[in-house]
Amino acid sequence: MPFPRHPHPDTLKSLADAAPIPFWLDDIRRPQPTSALTRIISTDLVVIGAGFTGLWTALLAKEADSSREVTLLEAGETAIGASGRNGGFVAASLTHGFENGREHWPGELTLLTEMGQANLEAIDATVKRLGIECDFLRSGELLVATEPYQVDELCHLPEKAAPFGEKLVWLDRYQTRSMVDSPLYLGGLYNQKGVAMVNPAQLAWGLRRECLNLGIRLYERTPVLHLDEEARDILVHTPYGCVQAKKVAIATNAYPPLLKYLSRFIVPVYDYVLVSEPLSTDQRASIGWQGRQGVSDTNNLFHYYRMTEDGRILWGGYDAVYYRNNGFGIHFEVNSEVFGRLAEHFFLNFPQLEGLRFTHAWGGAIDTCSRFTPFWGTAKDERIAYVLGFTGLGVGSSRFGALVMLDLLDGKSTDRTNLGMVRNKPTPFPREPFRSAVINLTRQSLEQADRNQGRRNLWLKLLEDFGLGFDS
Ligand SMILES: Cc1cc2nc3c(=O)[nH]c(=O)nc-3n(C[C@H](O)[C@H](O)[C@H](O)COP(=O)(O)OP(=O)(O)OC[C@H]3O[C@@H](n4cnc5c(N)ncnc54)[C@H](O)[C@@H]3O)c2cc1C
């Protein structure tokens, strides 16, 4: 049964008290932002953006060479972007899932899987080493089938993916529902090793604390306005100051790019999330879900959901909204139509929870690119590097993205920089007005396929032939 587009009026009551702020940031442990930069300083490396990518870049650079002066500039405060407003699924996959990896880089997928798993283990080890209390849980992810054709596709995946190093287990309807109970489930693919759950804001704030401990200079409330060159330095201009930097790492994700040409490769796509009140013991028992696995369904427009430490359900996804002309800003972070739809889908998935209320509802921008994975590049004689394009799966891969960016800035040739995935860029999106038209046609076609037993229309087949798509 496909998910409906319009909510029942009764469903909307569940949203009446929802605060329009990310649940993760609504936390008394949220650190007070530092002061803005108000002078001219010099540094070896300036990192722009204090989300996961920027925090990992700063931290790994300093850990590798403690004599390197590292400065981190953040327009707002740490984790105010996607890093503080995501689902908290930490995936090993660097390729936005197995199928996407096999489509684009079949020859290096085994290596990419290995590197992705090592990256996840390294995040786990860092959390433990630094004592970051971020509810990091190796509970895995359950990918559920809600339509018979999805069962046919998913049940063969463990066999197909095993030669590439993936360890997936197919669960029938009974086994799936004994893990998490929804009447919609027909089966599920369990990835226990390759996905962890985290409180993302706590992870980011923990990394921030370590950056400060190591002597990295952090200036929040400091938007970078533009970059210039002066002799051997890059000048990083901010409203009340300037950094003279030998090297610059750009980690600004879906925000309007400082290197303007990058907006050819990414589009900001808004993804929306609800968080419920904590479930009572009876409510929790009615849906099972004691293991706190992350769950996603297998539709093109998919939902992802997980249980928080204090027993709430985070429920997000489905609509991935592109606003014309790369629309970006806080006014897009609330969309009551989408929230209503998400709530309706929630109660279809878990009818046992009728009457549950949502306490938080928010949105955030995803840096979607046409191949759904990060891409890298350099400018100004390799003195500037960037990574972006994570397309909704950057909580884990941002650390790998940071390592590659540092390799590039250091001029190193490594197993990472030699990857085809690193050397090549995604196909650019067309300019407006074609950009909106193409994205909207693709979204509508994906929705139609979900209503039509997964059958893809000519447009989707054509995109597929060129290895292109639209996802979140
Ligand atoms: C709703 C939602 C759900 C998601 N769920 C998941 C998930 O479950 N799992 C997963 O893997 N991924 C998920 N993602 C994606 C994931 O959150 C991102 O890929 C990841 O956080 C990217 O981190 P980042 O540091 O690159 O970007 P961000 O966290 O967006 O950080 C960029 C930072 O740069 C700063 N900045 C921008 N421009 C400037 C400037 N000019 N000067 C100074 N600072 C600047 C911003 O203020 C911001 O803090 C989700 C994203 C969203 C929005």
Bound small molecules, by name, code or SMILES, are:
flavin-adenine dinucleotide
Question: Could you say which overall geometry the principal axes of the C-alpha atoms support?
Answer: globular
Our estimate of the beta-strand percent is: 15-25%
The biggest beta sheet reads:
8 strands, mixed
Q: Give the helix tally.
A: 14
Mean pLDDT: 95
Structural class, from helix and strand content? alpha/beta
How large is the radius of gyration? 22 Å
Q: How far from one another are the termini? A: 22 Å
E-strand count: 18
Low-confidence stretches: none
Fill in the keyword field for this structure:
alpha/beta; eight-stranded mixed sheet; 30% helix; globular; binds flavin-adenine dinucleotide
Description:
The chain has helices spanning 9-12, 52-64, 98-104, 109-130, 148-154, 157-161, 173-179, 200-213, 281-287, 336-349, 397-409, 420-423, 434-451, 458-465; strands at 40-48, 70-73, 89-91, 141-145, 169-172, 187-191, 195-197, 217-219, 226-230, 233-238, 241-250, 267-276, 294-297, 303-307, 313-322, 358-368, 375-379, 384-388. With 472 residues, it is an alpha/beta fold. The strands form three sheets. Strands 1, 2, 8, 9, 10, 11, 17 and 18 form an eight-stranded mixed sheet that branches. An eight-stranded mixed sheet has the order 5-6-4-13-14-15-12-16. Helix 2 runs parallel beside helix 8 and helix 2 (52-64) crosses helix 11. The longest helix is centred in the N-terminal third of the chain and has 22 residues, at 109-130. The structure holds flavin-adenine dinucleotide.
